[in-house]
Amino acid sequence: MRALEAYGAVRGGCGDPTLAKAHIGELFAKERVLRLPFIASRWTGLAISERALRVLVTSLIGLFMLTLGSAIAVHLLDAREATIAEHKRASVLQADLVHSLLQPFLRDELQKSGMPRQLGDSDLRRFLSEDATTNGRIFALATGAGEIISVSPDIGSLKGRKLRDIFPSSVLYQSGNLGDDMNAVTMPSGEEVFVTLRDLDPYPAVIAVMQSRGAMLSSWNSSALRLMSLFIATVSVVALIGAAFHWQSARAAEADNTLAIATERLDKALDRARCGLWDWDIARGHIFWSQSMFDILGLEPRGDLLSYAIVADLLHPEDKQMDKLVDDLLTSGRKSVDQEFRMRHTDGHWVWLRVRAELASSPGEVGPHLIGIAIDITEQKLADKANQEAELRLRDAIENISEAFVLWDSDNRLVMCNSKYQQFHNLPASVCVTGTPYDAVAKAAKEPVVRQRLPVGNIDPSEGSTFEVQLEDSRWLQINERRTKDGGFVSVGTDITSLKQHEERLMDSERELMNTVRDLQKSRLALEQQSQRLAELAEKYAQEKGRAEAANRSKSEFLANMSHELRTPLNAIIGFSEVMEREMLGPIGTKRYTEYATDIHRSGQYLLDVISDILDMSKIEAGRMPLEIKPCDVGVILEDSLRIISARAAEENVSIIRAFPERLPVTGDKRALKQVMINLLANAVKFTPAGGSVTIAAEDRGREVAIVIADTGIGIPRQAIDKLGRPFEQVENQLTKTKSGSGLGLAISKSLIELHGGSIKIDSTEGKGTTVTVFLPSNAARAHEAMLKGAVA
Question: 704-711 and 769-777: which strand pairing?
Answer without folding.
Answer: antiparallel
